[in-house]
Amino acid sequence: MNLYNEYIKEIEERKGQGLHPKPIDSADLLNEIIAQIKDTNNANRQDCLKFFIYNTLPGTTPAAGAKAKFLKEIILGQEAVAEITPTFAFELLSHMKGGPSILVLLDLALGNDEAIAKQAAEVLKTQVYLYDADMDRLKVAYENGNAVAKDILESYAKAEFFTKLPEVAEEIKVVTFIAGEGDISTDLLSPGNQAHSRSDRELHGKCMITPQAQEEIKALQAQHPDKSVMLIAEKGTMGVGSSRMSGVNNVALWTGKQASPYVPFVNFAPIVGGTNGISPIFLTTVDVTGGIGIDLKNWVKKTDANGELVRDENGEPILEQVYSVATGTVLTINTKTKKLYNGDKELIDISRSFTPQKMEFIKAGGSYAIVFGKKLQTFAAKTLGIDAPLVYAPSKEIHNEGQGLTAVEKIFNKNAVGTISKQVLHAGSDVRVTVNIVGSQDTTGLMTAQELESMAATVISPIVDAAYQSGCHTASVWDKKAQANIPKLMQFMNDFGLITARDPKGVYHPMTDVIHKVLNDITVDEWAIIIGGDSHTRMSKGVAFGADSGTVALALATGEASMPIPQSVKVTFKGSMPDYMDFRDVVHATQAQMLHQFGGENVFQGRIIEVHIGTLTADQAFTFTDWTAEMKAKASICISEDETLIESLEIAKGRIQIMIDKGMDNKNRVLQGLIDKANKRIAEIRSGEKPALRPDANAKYYAEVVVDLDQIAEPMIADPDVNNKDVSKRYTHDTIRPLSFYGGDKKVDLGFIGSCMVHKGDMKILAQMLKNIEKQQGKVEFKAPLVVAPPTYNIVDELKAEGDWEVLQKYSGFEFDDNAPKAVARTEYENMLYLERPGCNLCMGNQEKASKGDTVMATSTRLFQGRVVEDSAEKKGESLLSSTPVVVLSTILGRTPSIEEYKKAVEGINLTKFAPSHKLLVG
Fold it and tell me: Taking CA atoms, which of 164, 275, 561, 622 is between 20 and 30 Å from 808?
C-alpha cells in the first residue's frame, strides 16, 4: 500500500494549504484503494470508499479504467460492496462520461443478463461521448438482431440524451461582482505565473483575482444563496488576452455549479458580463462550460444636443452611466424574453446571449455535449435507415444574392460540413468546419490532455493534417514544476498522434520553439483553418483561431470546429514608409489610425481583419496577424500576391524538412505529408489552376480601413498608460504613442527582444545595430539589461550559418546552454545582453519577470498589469511595446531615444520594409 500511504501524506500536506485531497487519476493508486474496500475489516475502508466514489477522475484516465472495471464486477455480482449496490454502480458509471465506462456499459447492455442489459441500456441512453469503435459495436449488434441495441439506437435517433434534460430556467437571478474597472485580462482570472497549477483545479482556483475578491464572492453567495454571482468588467471587456480555459474554470469554480457530485472541482455554468461585452475567444470558452456571457452596455459615450460626442481635455469621449451594476446589485436574466431586469425595470435586450444554439449549450451543460450529440443522432438515424427528427435548432444559414465573398467566407464555405443550403453562405451563418492544423501549448496542454480524457478520446482525428505540441511557454527555466509536468504531457500528446517538441523516446533534441512560429511554418495552404491553444494562434496563411484547451481537444478528437462565419474588416495601405521605419511601426499605426477613423470605436473587435499585405512573406506578415489579438480581432487573414505566397511556402517546406531531419516525424509521416501538400499548392499557383486566395470584388465588409503610410513619421509605441486617471483606459493596447512623446528622457530599466512578434529579420537587425553602435561609439555598453530570446531553433541555426549569431555572442554576457538549462528563475539582471533559449521567455511571465516596478521596453505582445513586470510598492511596473530598433537603443541609452538618435542608430540597416502591393488583390 505504498501509493496509498504516499497519497495520505500528500493529503496532509494539502490540508496545510487549505486544500482537499487531489482527485485521483492513477490506476495503481485506485487499485490499492479498491483492495482496501474489499477488505471489510480494513481500518482505511471508509476513507477508501469516499476516495473511490467521490474523488476519482472520469473519462479515459487510468483511474477511470480501474473504477469502471470494479463497478462492472459489482453489477455482475462478482464482488459485493454493501455501500455500492448494483443500482448505485450504474449511477456512478453514468457520471464517468465515456471511455472505459462506455465500454463497460456496452458489455453489460449487449450481454446475456436481460435485467442488467436493460439497466445498462437506460444509462447508455443518457451518454453522448461515444466514438467510432463504440458505435460500431452497437451497429453490429443491431444488424445481428439485438433488441437492446435497437432500443438504444432509437433513443439516440430521437436525441433523448438531450430532449430529456431539464429546460433552461426562465428566470436566472444574479448578484453582481465588479472584478475590475476597464478590460479584465484572463491573466487576472488565471495568472500566467501560476500556469504550472492549472491541471490542479482547486489549487489553481486560489489564484483568481485576489484572496480579498474571493472572500467578497463568498460573502455575496452567503447573503444571496438563491442567486448566481455574475463577474463583471466595468467599463471594459471581459476576458481579453486569451481563451484561458483555466480562467473560465476558475470563475466557474467560485461562482458556477458542480457538474457532478462524484467529480470534484469541475464546475460549469459561470455567468460573466462586460460593459463592452466579452472577448470573442473568451466567450467561446464560456460556451464550452454552458455559461452565459452578457454585453451589458451599461456605460455609453455621452453626446450633446446635436448628437456630437462630448470629449474630455485629452480628446477622449466622456462616458455616462445608463444603469448601475455595482457589486451587490441583484438582477434578473429572463431567458424567454431575453432581457435583463432590475426588479421590474427592463435594462437591456440580451438576445445575443440566448441564440437558439447558446440555449442548447446552456441546457446541455456545455457545447461539447451538443457536438457529440449531433454526431450520435446522425449515426443512429443512418444505422436505423430513418431521417433524424429535427431536435436541435437548425443552423442559421445566410445567403445574400448577388453578394461576393470575403476571404474568410470563402475558406468557411470550402471547409463547411453538414450544411443544408446548396448556396454559398455569408457572415452570420452557423457553420461546422473541418480543421486542418491544431496546436497545443505547454501551459494549457495538460488541461487539453484532461479534456481529451474527459471526452474519452484516444487518438487524433484522421481529418487533421497535422498537430503540434509545443514546449515554449516553459522554455526559460527547466525547474521542478516543468520537469514534473512537461515530459508527462509530451508522452500523452505523442501517443495521441501529435508532433511533439520533446521526444518521449529521447531520439531528437528537445525543442522549445514558440508554438505560433511552428504553426505558421506547418500551415502550407492559405485555405486552411487552424485552431490553437493560445490567443496568438494568428497564422499569416489560412485563418487561425486561438481557442481554449477544450476547443483544442475537440478539434484534435473530431477534426472539426463550430462557429458563425465572422464579419470582416478590410485593411489596405497607401503611401510609402520612410527608410528609417520598421514594419512593427506600421502594425501599431494601423490600430491608431483605425481608432481615429472611427471615432474611438474598435471596428476590429470580434471580427476578421482581412489585411491586403500583398508583398510580405509569411514570416514578416506574422508580425501583423499576431498583433490582431491585441486589436481584439477574432482572427486575421493575409491576402498575398502569388509569388509572395510561393516564397512563403518554400520557406515553410525548408523548415518542415529540418524537423523531419531531426527525427520529429511520426509513423504516419505527417510532416512529409505537409511537404507534399505544399508542393501541390505551389504547382496549382504556378500553373494558374488555383491562384492565391482572393476575396471577391463585390464582397461586403463591416468596415474598410485604409492605412496611410505617409503619416507614420516616427516609431510607434503601445503604452499601458499606467497612470491614466481613468482606470478603464489603462493596460488596453489602444494607447499608441509616437517616440517623440517621451522626449528622449523616459528611463528604461530593461529591454526584451523576443516572443512570437519577432522573426529572423529582427535578430539580424539586432546584430547590425550592435555593429553600428560599436563603429559610432567605439564600444557597445548597455545601460540597461537586454534579454534576447529567438523564437525558434531554426532561426538560431540560420543566424549561425549567416554569421549573425557570432555577432550576438560577441556582445553577450550570457548564452543559453541546452546541456545545462537554468533550473531557477533569474530574479536580477545586469546591464548586459542575455542570449536566452528559444521560447516565450518574459512575454509569458510565468517563469521569469523583470524586477518589480521596472519600465520595460519590449517587442512582445502583452502589456497587461503584472504580466511582464509587477508593480513595486513605490512604482507601477510598465511594459511598453515597440520595434526591435527602439528596444536595442533604449537599453544602450538606458532611456527612450530621441528621434534623431534613433535615425542615426539605424543608418544603413536593413529594417523590415513594407510597400503596398500595386496589384488589385481581389478575385
Answer: 622
Parallel/antiparallel/unpaired status of strands 855-858 and 750-754: parallel
The whole-angstrom separation of Cα 513 and Cα 90 is: 46
Region for residue 338 given its phi and psi (left: phi exceeds 0; alpha: psi -120 to 50; beta: otherwise): left
Helix axes 86-94, 114-124, angle to 10 degrees: 30
What is residue 509's predicted lDDT score, i.e. its pLDDT?
85
Residue 297 or 482, more confident: 297
Helical H segments across 256-355, by residue range:
280-288
- The C-alpha cell that represents 866 in the structure block: 503584472
Tell me: the pLDDT tens digits for 650-676?
A: 999 999 999 999 999 999 999 999 999
Nearest to 748 by CA among 834, 826, 850, 840: 850
Phi, psi of 146 (to 5 degrees): -75, 120
DSSP run (H or E) holding 271: strand 271-274
Cβ pair 404, 423 in contact under 8 A? no
Q: Which three cell numbers stand for residue 174?
A: 444574479
With beta carbons less than 8 A apart as the criterion, state whether 869 and 846 touch.
no
Please, which residues bridge with residue 738 across strands? 716
Q: What is the dihedral of CA 114, 116, 119, 123, to 10 degrees?
A: -120
Whole-angstrom Cα Rg for the chain? 28
Dihedral sign (CA 854, 313, 239, 439): negative
- 3-state class (DSSP) for residue 501: coil
The percent of residues in the chain predicted with pLDDT above 90, rounded, is 80
Instruction: Tell me the per-residue pLDDT of 172-229, one tens digit each, with 9 for 90 and over.
Output: 999 999 999 999 998 899 987 787 888 899 999 999 999 999 999 999 999 999 999 9
833-835 β-sheet, strand order: 736-738, 716-718, 878-881, 855-858, 750-754, 786-789, 833-835, 812-815
Name every residue whose Cβ is closer than 8 Å to that of residue 69 and which is 6 or more positions away in sequence: 100, 104
Residue 783 buriedness (CB in 10 A; 0-12 / 13-18 / 19+):
middle
CA 719 to chain centre: 24
- Average pLDDT (226-246) is 89
